[in-house]
Each structure stands twice: as C-alpha cells, then as structure tokens.
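Anyone up for a design puzzle?
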C-alpha cells in the first residue's frame, strides 16, 4: 500500500494556504490557523486523505485503469506532463478543450487527424509543397499541444486527477457529468464539494505540485510493477500442476460450499468497506444509475 509522510508534506510546503481574506468557508475544517495573514492547512487531516488517494491510484493502476493528469496552469503544466509520461498515464497540460470527454467522438476525429499528420511528418511531408507542408506542421503542433497527452488513451479515463480545482472547472464539470471519480488538490480559497477525493493543500507552489504529481506517479508505478510480477508468475503455477489427478481435485473443490459463498451477493458491511469509486463501478456493472451528487451512503442504498 502506497504511503507518504508528514515530513515530505512539510518540505514541499503543502501546509501553506491562501491569504486569510481569500478563503472559502467550507475549507474551514481543514485550516489549522493563520500566520502572517496566510492560512495554514492542518496536515494531520491532509495526510490520511492523500494516503487514501495514493491507495486508490494504486488500485486503479493495478486493475489496468487509467488516471488522467490535469494541470493546465503554468506552474503545473510541465510537472503534470513529465510525471504522467513517467508512469504511463494520459495528461492534459495545455488547455482543456470543451467536450474533451463529453463529446469524445469529435475529439477522437481530431486525434485521428493528429496521428495522420504524424505519419506524414515521418517523411517530412515530402509529397507536399513547402507552403502546404508548413501549414500541416503548424496544425500538427497545435493538435499535439492540446491532444498529445490523450492520443493513446483510446476512450474515457477511469479517474481524473486535478491540480487546482478552481482553474480546471471545465474538466471537473465534464467529469461530474460522466460520473468519473475526481482526485482534487483543494486550496483554502476553493469549495471542496463535488470532489470525490479531496486533498487539502497548497495548489500554487511548484514544490507542492511536484510532490503531489510525483507521489501519485510513484504509486501507479509500484502498482504496475506488482501487477506485472503476478502476471509473470501465473503461467509457472499452471505448468507445475499434475495432469489428471489435479483436474479431479479442482472439480471437487468447485463443488464445496466455499465456492457457493463466494458467488453470494456481497454483504452490506462489504459495501461499506469499499471506496466510493469502487461502488460507482459496481453500480455501473449492475445497471444501477448513480448521480454525481450521490453520496457513498446513497450508492450503497441503491445497491442493497
């Protein structure tokens, strides 16, 4: 299980909020106090919440899911791109195009155009004139800035990870509309409502942004490495099993009451132990409608 520490948070300056006159009342529960006119965030609350995020990111990556890194403001742009590439996840770091997820068919056509231009660029647009080649190069660069981070995504991401929820309002609105789990770094001047995984913390400092992105990327890489090890070991276990006798033993075991118990519907206590994102995924599989405003308790009630 991926974990971070209070020491790392302090070194990154996660505890520095905004000036006390620029604050949102709903962030009051996460504020420790004020120093020199600046709100200080209570890291004793931030630490377990960020560890929950890292655990959720690990589970998503281990299951083969995708986490979209979103950070389009200047302080976050390069960092989010670098860390997303490092852990093999998609990213948006230039500008969030309207309908990037809610109108994916149009975006998909633009991605196809980008890939076609990249294919032609491999031969330096040799079959076209200089003027045409220049126009195509400019078009390709523009598409690469906006869509380069999601061109290999192949569909809607499983989770959206956002730095500065106030700056990324469009990304959050589209994620909510599609019922996608949102991980959000929330500073003292923003409303945390509607964010599934709130991380109260500094969203302006480059050091703090680097810390969040690096820790999430590390959690993803560790989960992928662990999942890859398990996949490699699986064929060896199959090979070592004896031929006919093993088949009989397996058949007998399947008939035992233990297997019947596994097939039963999960108990309510199991649902309570699940993360909200996992409950949303379970609801989708069972054809149960879940609204973006539904709380964890609401989803459990619908599944019961």
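Challenge accepted. My sequence:
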């Amino acid at each position: 299980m991926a974990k971070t520490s209070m020491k790392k948070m302090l070194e990154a300056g996660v505890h520095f909020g905004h000036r006390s006159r620029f604050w949102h009342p709903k962030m009051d529960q996460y504020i420790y106090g004020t120093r020199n006119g600046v709100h200080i965030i209570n890291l004793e609350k931030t630490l377990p919440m960020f560890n929950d995020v890292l655990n959720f990111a690990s589970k998503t990556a281990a299951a083969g899911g995708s986490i979209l890194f979103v950070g389009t403001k200047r302080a976050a742009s390069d960092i989010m791109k670098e860390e997303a590439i490092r852990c093999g996840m998609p990213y948006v770091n230039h500008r969030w195009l309207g309908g990037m997820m809610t109108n994916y068919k149009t975006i998909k056509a633009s991605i196809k155009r980008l890939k076609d231009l990249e294919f032609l660029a491999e031969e330096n647009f040799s079959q076209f004139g200089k003027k045409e080649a220049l126009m195509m190069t400019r078009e390709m660069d523009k598409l690469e800035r906006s869509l380069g981070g999601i061109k290999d995504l192949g569909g809607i991401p499983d989770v959206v990870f956002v730095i500065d929820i106030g700056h990324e309002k469009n990304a959050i609105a589209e994620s909510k509309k599609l019922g996608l789990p949102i991980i959000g770094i929330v500073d003292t001047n923003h409303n945390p409502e509607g964010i599934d995984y709130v991380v109260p913390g500094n969203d302006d400092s480059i050091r703090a942004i680097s810390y969040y992105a690096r820790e999430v990327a590390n959690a993803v890489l560790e989960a992928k490495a662990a999942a890859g090890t398990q996949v490699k070991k699986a064929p060896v276990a199959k090979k070592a099993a004896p031929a006919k006798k093993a088949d009989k033993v397996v058949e007998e075991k399947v008939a035992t009451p233990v297997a019947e118990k596994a097939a039963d519907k999960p108990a309510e206590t199991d649902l309570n132990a699940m993360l909200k994102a996992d409950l949303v995924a379970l609801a989708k599989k069972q054809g149960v409608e879940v609204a973006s405003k539904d709380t964890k308790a609401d989803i459990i009630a619908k599944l019961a």
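A detail worth pointing out: The chain is about 55% helix and 10% strand.
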